Amino acid sequence: MFAGGEGTQLNPYKIENYTQLLNMRYYPDKSYALSCDLDLSGINHEPIFDANEYFEGMFFGNNKTIKNLTVATESNFPSLFGMVMGGFVDNLNLENVSITTTDFNTIEAGMQYYVGALAGYFAGRIDNISVSGNVVVDGLSYDGVAIGGLIGWVSGSVNDCNVDIQINAKNVFSINTNNMSLPFIFGGMLGVGDAVKIRNSHSQGEINVTECFWFEEGSIGQINRYTEIYIGGLIGYCFTYSNGDAEIADSITNITIKGDNHYNAGGFVGYLEINQNTSMLISNCSVLGDITIGVVGGFICNGYAYGELLIENCYTNCDITGYSRAAGFLKTYSGATDKCIIRNCYSLSNIKSHNVFDSEIIVGEAWGFGYQISDVNFVNCYSSGNIYSYRGGGFIWSLGFGKIYGCYSDCNITLFASTGSSVFTYNLRDTEVENCYSISNVVYDSQTKHNAINIIGHISNGKINNFYYAGNSVGNVIRLIEDTKINNFHVLRTISTEDLMGEDRGETPSPVDITAYETKEEMYFLADRLNEGQTEVWVNQDNDFPKLKFEIAN
What is the tens place of the pLDDT at every residue in 498-546? Predict the structure, then answer.
């Protein structure tokens, strides 16, 4: 049955041909070692294991290669191994993988549909696996689908893995309701990460999702319905279960993501969910692949946290196009008070939004770092890229019950509507802004040039301390203010108006300390004033504007 060995960890069964590889199914708890490369050309492979007989042993790839793995099956878990529970796989190359999915009936089967090159479902440890190939999806109608370049659904650890994958999906219809909150998931490396720990792993290639909609008859005629889809350059949907922590470190995605309108994509993670009594750490990670789809977060698209979340030393550097909304780092997130921190992160991405069918029709919103966020603290973060949109701004559109500390925006912003736009943030509620600045410039068209965009649109029950703005756009510094203290705020007056403040809606006037300057040179040595009442945070630059003391390496 094998080329030698005893099936133990020290003396594993040796595999030298495809028949011996399939013979693993007879001993799912044993240890195996691949002794030579295998070429599976001309073979339509069926997954070796399934939910009734899963692999729970060890597989040592010995840096060998399995070439031309082709999987087109009606069964669940389309992949090499199928289902792995408590197993270990290392040092294996899967070259030129080709997987074609089927419309697996998740309702009759009573389980979700998991697709990946190495395994559809994997609980255990994966070390040093490389994958190249493609996954083709043409027709899915049953909810509960998780497709990843390496694994469909993983719980455990993934270390030193590399995936180069092409995923093409179309005709995905959500016509059956299986009560699954996230019905269709695509990830460059993992479809779903369940309290997963990932280190030094990279994904590249392309994910292309199109034509995933259908028509229904409604009261006003045919109604266009869209399937709920989440896409992530590394993980489509990542979550922590009760008492299960997760961590991702030292990983890069260079996945090009393309899609029609109404789909959701994050350059790193599509949807991130942190449950109570759990934590998630993401550190030293980056997004380099361009994204063009309906709703985009350059790093993370959507999610929420009841537990602890820390994202640090991460960045995006790509071109982002959203058909409705786009943000350079984080699109929409609801955090837990004082438990969610984004620190030392930045976006260098160029961001634009336009009509899905005609790029000359500018619609939607684009923001340099974040869009709609609550209960998250931002520390030492910045956005620096070109923004081209109907509405938008330099840093964050809306933040409630959070803090922005030591952050800045340095963007060139082209906007076609002043309403709903701002240079730094638009809507702050119960939020503190401290030691921040913006030197973003706004390019005005004929519609916006006579109505200058504010630095901050609306702030209520908040506080701003030690801030300066030195770009080219000042109508009102703040359009609407309510029960907020403004202290040590400095602004370059580039538009001839005395109305630095807009409407005050509070029951009593808000205390406002704003100094306006007529020339840039007058603002070059503000660090001393900005540092008042605190240890040195600001430093003067020779013949330039003050800078925050921290540095984030690109």
Answer: 678 889 999 899 999 999 998 999 999 999 999 998 989 999 999 999 9
pLDDT at 446: 58
Cβ-based neighbour number of residue 507 at 10 Å: 7
- What are the helix (H) ranges across 81-137? 106-109
Number of Cβ within 10 Å of residue 145's Cβ equals 31
Q: What is the pLDDT of residue 550?
A: 85
**3-state SS assignment for residue 116:** coil
Query: Which of 115, 132, 131, 119 is CA-nearest to residue 185?
Result: 115
Integer Rg of the chain from CA:
26
pLDDT of 242 higher than 70: no
The number of residues in the chain equals 554
- C-alpha distance across the termini of the chain, in Å: 54
DSSP for 468-502, please give it.
Answer: EE-SS--S-SEEEEES-EEEEEEEE--S--S--EE
Cβ neighbors of 381 (< 8 A, separation 6 or more) are 329, 342, 343, 344, 345, 346, 369, 406, 407
pTM over cut 0.90: yes
Q: Name, in order, each residue with C-beta under 8 angstroms of 400's C-beta and a sequence gap of 6 or more.
A: 373, 374, 375, 428, 429, 430, 431
Structure tokens of 298? Answer: 């350059």
Chain centroid offset of residue 469 CA: 29
Confidence band (pLDDT; 50, 70, 90) for 163?
very high
- Contact between 359 and 369 (Cβ < 8 Å): no
| Helix, coil or strand: residue 109 | helix
**Cα(206)–Cα(212) distance, rounded to whole angstroms?**
17
500: left (phi over 0), alpha (psi -120 to 50) or beta: alpha
Most confident of 106-115, 288-297, 490-499: 288-297
* Upper half-sphere CA count for residue 106 (Cβ side, 13 Å): 21
- Residue 337, pLDDT score: 81
CA distance 423 to 383: 12
Supply the DSSP symbol for 329.
S
DSSP helix/strand/coil, 8: coil
- The span from the CA of 259 to the CA of 212, in Å, is 9
Q: Give phi and psi for 535, each to the nearest 5.
A: -65, 165
CA distance 378 to 403: 6
- The answer to whether 355 and 376 have CB atoms below 8 angstroms apart is no
Angle at 470 between CA 478 and CA 544, to 5 degrees: 155
Tokens representing 412 are: 């060139």
Q: How far apart are CA 159 and CA 165, in angstroms?
A: 18
> Token pair of 45, please?
């492979």
Question: Checking DSSP bridges between strand 538-541 and strand 544-548, what pairing results, if any?
Answer: antiparallel
Q: Which residues pair with 428 in a beta bridge?
A: 399, 459
For 282, residues 6+ apart whose C-beta sits below 8 A from its C-beta are 247, 248, 249, 268, 310, 311, 312, 314
**Average pLDDT for residues 308-330, to the nearest whole number?**
97
Distance CA 103, CA 226 (A): 18
